[in-house]
Amino acid sequence: DIQMTQSPSTLSASVGDRVTITCRASQTISSWLAWYQQKPGKAPKLLIYKASSLESGVPSRFSGSGSGTEFTLTISSLQPDDFATYYCQQYGSYPYTFGQGTKLEIK
Amino acid sequence: QITLKESGPTLVKPTQTLTLTCTFSGFSLSTSGVGVSWIRQPPGKALEWLALIYWDDDKRYSPSLKSRLTVTKDTSKNQVVLTMTNMDPVDTATYYCAHQEEYGDSSGFFDYWGLGTLVTVSS
Q: Are the CB atoms for B64 and B72 separated by under 8 Å?
């Protein structure tokens, strides 16, 4: 299985900040990576697929980059609605695997 | 629009078999490139992918759970069914079904999710 490691596990930030979350794969996955946002009690929401493609309807302050084994999710200017937990997921090979999550908290 | 909804028991006893149904609308599981996955999330923990069934009945399973899982589809009813045998308290989780589809050269991410159903395993 490909292991996905996110950092940091918790991130404290303020509205308006620029934040970056990193996801590392234990082996190369080309650009087969997605990012999700999850709020308490809710299903995950797709933000980014194929490492850098923005899902329809997702604000442009979200962006993704990377390929191979290292990927980042950047939020350019945090909004109050962005405080949530973020997960990366690889779909380069079966079994699909998720990172352990990054909780974005209000500072 | 695409919607999915999970249904099944909220409480199962250890050693019992869990059967969950995903009922969906807005797409057909007979369309080339379409699949439905099951994903679970223990309380306070990360997401774990379990199983996938494709439009052509190809099936994929998490190796760590493969011996306990079966996924089937009923295209006429727009349903996908997941069975998990020999349930244990560690299987307590919210279980989600999710839609995936080939978009160009990309497939394997989940663009639509059900609301999830919490299954508790306890005697």
A: no
* Parallel, antiparallel or unpaired: strands B117-121 and B11-12: parallel
Q: What's the pLDDT at B106? A: 80
Q: Which residues make Cβ contacts (< 8 Å) with residue B65, sequence separation at least 6?
A: B50, B51, B84
Span A63-79, pLDDT tens digits: 999 999 999 999 999 99
Beta bridge partners, B101, equal B34
pLDDT tens string A87-105 = 999 999 999 999 999 999 9
Burial of A55 (0-12, 13-18, 19+ CB in 10 A): middle
Reply yes or no: is the peptide bond before residue B42 cis, omega within 30 of 0.
no
In this prediction, what percent of chain A has a pLDDT beyond 70?
100
A81's tokens: 């609605």
**pLDDT tens digits along B86-113:** 999 999 999 999 999 988 778 899 999 9
Whole-Å CA distances, B53 to A96, B28, B37, B38: 13, 13, 6, 9
Cross-chain residue pair B106–A87, CB shorter than 8 Å: no
For B41, nearest residue in chain A (alpha carbons): A43
CA distances from A93 to A25, A61, A78, B38 (A): 12, 29, 32, 16
Maximum CA extent, chain A: 38
Cβ of residue A57 closer than 8 Å to a chain B Cβ: no
Would you call B5 an interface residue with chain A, using a CB distance cutoff of 8 Å?
Answer: no
Tokens of A83: 């405080």
Per-residue DSSP letter, A55: P
